[in-house]
Design goal:
49% of the residues lie in helices and 12% in strands. With 178 residues, the chain is of the alpha+beta class.
Length: 178
């Protein structure tokens, strides 16, 4: 199902992907894709592609750890990040089976407490996803809350919960665009 849905989404978003790709190619004078080393299923490191939203000299760290991230955004980068459109290149990873549409978000290898928690609770056995329960239902960026929500998803994962996450992701994206 992940493969079929990712293919449909790639076809649907293809014009938008092309526009973003060429726009960022001009803005960055080069590669519009940023590759981030992330921890995925079974704590394996993999390359996570995203559209570049920050200038080339921006430090690599989580959004929560930036004092003033706004000074690092390229023109239009904040919009891409806010709407989640920067995540569209990850549909390729879903298509080839390295990620799911839904699952816990992959983390940086420096996010030790999350990696430890996921290993202890078994969450790390799940394929990571483009969107997830914690991303949709978290009220803040608190790591403990996101861990708790990822654990809830791990214990209650089913088709209807995945549909609920997809529905709320679409609603959330529309709200962010408007």
């Amino acid at each position: 199902m992940n493969i079929v849905l990712s293919l449909i989404l790639l076809i649907f978003f293809f014009p938008i992907i092309l526009i973003i790709f060429f726009y960022l190619m001009i803005i960055h004078a080069g590669n519009p894709i940023f590759i981030s080393k992330r921890i995925g299923q079974n704590n394996k490191i993999f390359n996570l592609p995203k559209f570049k939203t920050l200038i080339n000299l921006a430090p690599i760290k989580t959004s929560e750890n930036f004092k003033d991230i706004s000074k690092y955004y390229v023109v239009g980068g904040y919009f891409l990040k806010k709407t989640g459109l920067d995540e569209l290149p990850q549909l390729i990873l879903v298509l080839v089976g390295k990620m799911n549409l839904i699952g816990p978000r992959p983390v940086l290898d420096s996010q030790f407490s999350i990696i430890k928690y996921r290993s202890k609770t078994g969450i790390n056995k799940l394929k990571t996803g483009i969107t997830g329960y914690a991303q949709i239902f978290s009220t803040n960026r608190n790591v403990n809350e996101k861990n708790r929500l990822d654990y809830y998803y791990y214990k209650n994962k089913n088709f209807s919960l995945d549909l609920k996450i997809i529905l709320f992701t679409v609603i959330d994206m529309i709200k962010r665009i408007l």
